[in-house]
Structures are given as C-alpha cells and as structure tokens.
C-alpha cells in the first residue's frame, strides 16, 4: 500500500463506489445500464433515474467525503494530534446552528420555502461565523493551544444554541423531524442545485490544498522547526484554517452533519501510507469520497431508517475508542 500503486488502487475503489452508488437503489441497474445512461443511451426511465436523482446525490457525497477527509488531514497535522477532526474549530457546530435556525424559525419568517439555497447558505454563514473569532486569533499569531481551546468553547456554546432551538420546536413534530434528519446527515433528495452550490468550490479548495503538502510536513514537526526551515508559519496557518473551514462548511451545508469521516479516513491512510502529506492529502480525498459513498450505499441497501451520519458513527465510534486505547 505504501508503493506507487496505492493512489491508482484508491482511484479504482472510488470508481467502483461511484458506479455502485449509481446502480443500487429501489430500482437496481446493471453496470451496462448505468454506463449507457451516463452516455445518453438506454431507455428514458433509466436515464431519468441516473441523471435526475442518483448522479447529483453521488457527486455531492463524493465531494463531501473528499472535503471532510482533506480537512481532517489538515487538522491532524495542524494540531499534531491524530484525534483532531474537521469540527474541532466549531465549523460543524456553526453550520448546524445556522441550518437549525432556518428550519426552526424559517416558517414564521417566511424563509424556509423561499429558496432551495436558503438552508445551505445559512449553514455556510453559520460555519464561517463560528470560526470568525478563531480566524482573528490566528491573524494575531495565537498559539495552537489557544486556537484549540477557542474551538472547544465555541463548540459548547453553539451546541447549546442548537439544543435551545430544538427545545422551542418540540411541539412542532414536522419541523423537529426535519431538524433531526438534517443533524444526522444524509444525501437524500440531492439535486443539481446542491451540486453547483458545493462541488465546484470543494474541488477548488482541494486543488489549493495539494501544493501545501510540504508545508504541512514541516508544520507537523513544530512551529519553530518549520519557521527555521523557511516556512512562513503564520501565513501557512491562515491558509490552512481558511481552506479547512471552506471545505467543512460546504460539506456540512450540502450533506448535513456527517461525523468521523475526517477522523477515520486520514488516520487509517496515515497508518498504512506514512506521514508524508504530499501523498496523504490526495489519498485522503480519494479515500474520503469512497468511504462516504460506501456508507451512503449501506443506507440504501438496508432501508430501515438508517441515516448517513449514523452509519459513519457506527464505523467511526469504535475506531475512535480504539485510538484512545493505543499507546502514543
């Protein structure tokens, strides 16, 4: 897995997960039917299922998985801690509060049905608002420890706000159900609007992260060591925080709260690949997309009310506990 064939292997796994995501569902399709539909051939029903329903869902899942895994890789290197994840600085909690506020208060303000973009935009604004204080600290040269403590405090505060909104909507069962479904993550009913609002920017953010692999390698040695080797540490940290925030915010805005992807995927790949971020970053993007598509496939193959966030937690929770038990 540490050889040159690892990236092509991950790419093949991603292609397999991509095709499986298009083939399985209430209407099961053969690989040839999927390929025919993608190239505009086949019957009209198959083309409609692929192009109007499954392809947008698959593209959003692929992009969200790649974004969360890339962001998790950055956070683990940034804090030099394998237990760091994309939500550490309050991005996911801020996105959750923004979305829940629209779902809870939107009907009374006439916002909920105003546009398909309302919920993702509110989630994105909440995510960036939550990390605004952290960014201010970063611009002033705050230490990594202070950034981490600020993120912990923000997560607690924003979580309390989300809980309060859930409390005041307790009597509105339909609204409460929408909030709970969103908080558990999912790719149902994804459309091309969701693709255009998230996938291009996520692709750009991932592309901008790739050249920073060498800087991440040096930063993981410690700030003083990196600076002595010619790295502009403050500038690099700002770039990393901005890109990680953008990726996590858009993944949360388009797919809801999906945990453990940014924790599990980078750490597994680091164990089998090594700590070189020049290779680890692209591997995490491929692995994150594959992992999320596979988890989403589970929710469709076993239609018993499973949510995507539940499946990723079932996989990630035991892995997290195993990490805690391992010697450093």
Automatic annotation (TrEMBL):
Membrane topology: Multi-pass membrane protein
Domain of life according to the entry: Bacteria
Subcellular location(s) per record: Cell membrane
Keywords, alphabetical: Cell membrane, Membrane, Transmembrane, Transmembrane helix, Transport
Main location: membrane
CDD domains: TM_ABC_iron-siderophores_like
Cited InterPro entries: ABC_BtuC-like, ABC_transptr_permease_BtuC
Keyword Hydrolase: no
Membrane-traversing stretches: 59-79, 86-105, 111-135, 147-175, 195-219, 240-268, 306-324
Family per record: Belongs to the binding-protein-dependent transport system permease family. FecCD subfamily.
This protein's name: Hemin ABC transporter permease
Source organism of this protein record: Geothrix rubra
Lineage: Bacteria, Pseudomonadati, Acidobacteriota, Holophagae, Holophagales
